[in-house]
Amino acid sequence: MPTKRQKNVWMSEINDIIRGACGGFLFGIPLLYTMEVWWIGSLAKAQLMMMAIALMFVVVYLLNQIEGFRKRRYSWLAYQTLMDTVEAIAIGLACSTFVLLLLRELTPETSLKESLGKIIFESVPFALGVALANQLLGDTENSNAEGQTTDGVNSTTKNKGDELHATFADLGATLIGATVIAFNIAPTDEIPMLAAAASPPWQLAMIATSLLISYGIVFQAGFSDQQKRKEQKGIFQRPSSETLVSYLVSLLAGAFMLWFFQKLSFSDPWTMWLDHTLILGLPATIGGAAGRLAI
């Protein structure tokens, strides 16, 4: 019994960390594609970095008192809120570091001071997103527990037309969410800059990261009737196939936006289309995952 209880505690902690990280990606991904933030971070002095950390700590602490990223709240316990704040900042630092490495904005040649500045300034929106995880796309599973049993019975009587409608609704929500997030990034100069530095291994890592984050947001983080989404039926309504198809839709949306803003043309080689689309595909996929949760 103690072993099983300890295992449940660890699983709950892992799910809380995944939920916080997904909230950070939803909130912080646009600034990671902003070169001005890279420059500010690379030129920041130690005093400014410490001030950014202090301000981040205060804001995240206040947000954790309101909601936070855990399902079970102990906001009346000051030490618990303090621990959640430290953990939220740590998640933000880790996520921003990972994405900066993925985008090749951090390399072995980057100096320690420049790396710290970029990580700290980029982690601010990530940490805020972690603290706002439940407020961004809160879990309504418990409040709708009775409705789910009824829906489960009704779902067995759905006809093919209903399944097609659910599938197209998901694809449409993916398209809308991808457009909302990526539309502000597609016309910027950051996409060509990042694409020029992306080699094939990093492109594969970008694909894997996009798929994992999309799956985590929709099916693992505990947002918005997660169990109901896993049981939903349709042509692509299984976690693995839905994640893959939604990623392809997000890539198509990103490619269209790059063409629309004249960042790509039909005379460009297909490799250029691939490079640029995969770079924009990460924020587009995150937006598409958020769109699917919104329906």
In terms of DSSP E residues, the strand content is: under 5%
Please provide the count of β strands.
0
> What is the makeup of the main sheet?
none
Number of helices: 13
Multimeric state: single chain
| Average pLDDT number | 82
Terminal CA distance reads 40 Å
Q: Which runs of at least 5 residues are low in confidence (pLDDT < 50)? A: 140-158
- Percent helix, as a range, is over 70%
Elements, N to C (H/E): HHHHHHHHHHHHH
Shape: globular
Briefly note the structural class of the backbone: mainly alpha
Brief rundown of the structure:
The chain has 295 residues and is an all-alpha fold. The chain is built from 13 helices and no strands.
Tell me about this structure.
With 295 residues, the protein is mainly alpha-helical. It is 76% helix and 0% strand. It contains 13 helices and no strands. It has helices at 2-32, 35-43, 46-66, 78-102, 112-131, 133-136, 145-155, 160-182, 190-196, 200-220, 226-231, 239-260, 270-294. It is globular, with a radius of gyration of 20 Å. Residues 140-158 have low confidence and may be disordered.
